[in-house]
Amino acid sequence: MARTINLSTSDWAVLALLSEGEAHGFRLASVFAPSGELGQIWSIQRPQVYRALEHLVARGYALPLRQETGEIGPPRTVYVATPEGIRVVRQWLATPVAHLREGRSDLLLKLAFLYRLGESPRPLLGAQKEIFGQLLRSLEARVPVAEGIDRVVLLWRVENARSALDFLEKLL
Fold first, then answer.
1. Which of 45, 61, 127, 135 is the most buried (most CB within 10 A)?
2. Max CA-CA distance within the chain?
3. What is the rounded CA–CA span in Å between residue 90 and residue 106?
4. Mean pLDDT over all residues of the chain?
5. pLDDT per residue over 128-159, tens digit each?
6. What is the DSSP letter of 39?
7. pLDDT at 72 (0 to 100)
8. What pLDDT was estimated at residue 108?
9. What is the pLDDT of residue 128?
10. Strand, coil or helix: what is 81?
């Protein structure tokens, strides 16, 4: 049985980017800046990037590789993903999200990284479609007996699930 790895979305995003190659925190932060390559999916401020790097090093998923002098400021530490870090990222990229609310963050990040790696997202999309389909059926079964604000929230979730499934189908 695979053990659950408890990392934040920011930790996963930083580790996935590190698994593409070595980088220092400033470069990582620029990719996740609002105007960066992945910032429209998930923005991470520079202090959060450095906190994620600390978490990843503490867990053995990343290592400081060397120091580089920057044009201004103190030397920059260059990090690299460890073989274990790369292994867990690959596992994360292949694992569908469990909740609809994670579709906007984790799922889009996974798709972006799969595209960056030149890998087909089809296996992930198919697995995700199954999970969201099960969720939709479960939600729809509860609608007939829901009342008041519970019904309002439930109908909102049903429409979000339908929309997510439509999105997945278009990608497939």
1. 61
2. 64
3. 14
4. 93
5. 999 999 999 999 999 999 999 999 999 999 99
6. T
7. 75
8. 96
9. 97
10. strand
Distance CA 172, CA 168 (A): 6
Cα–Cα distance measured from residue 159 to residue 172, given in angstroms and rounded to the nearest whole number: 20
What angle, 0 to 180 degrees and rounded to 10, lies between the N-to-C axes of helices 122-142 and 83-94?
A: 50
102: which 2 tokens?
Answer: 């994670």
pLDDT, tens digit, for every residue of 93-134?
999 999 999 999 999 999 999 999 999 999 999 999 999 999
Is residue 76 within a helix (H) or strand (E), and if so which, with residue range? strand 76-81
CB under 8 Å, gap of 24 or more: what pairs does 167-170 form? 167/103, 168/125, 168/128, 168/129, 168/132, 169/129
Q: Using CA atoms, how far apart are residues 52 and 136, in angstroms rounded to an integer?
A: 34
Tell me the two tokens of residue 66. 């060397």
Tell the residue number behind the tokens 């059926």, with chain if given. Answer: 137
Looking at residue 1, its amino acid is M
Residue 126: what are its φ and ψ, rounded to 5°?
A: -65, -45
Tokens 């799969």, located at residue: 114
Angle at the Cα of 104 from the Cα atoms of 47 and 156, rounded to 5 degrees: 130
pTM: 0.89
Residue with tokens 């920011």: 10
Give residue 77's Cα distance to chain centre. 24
The token duo for 91 is 């596992």
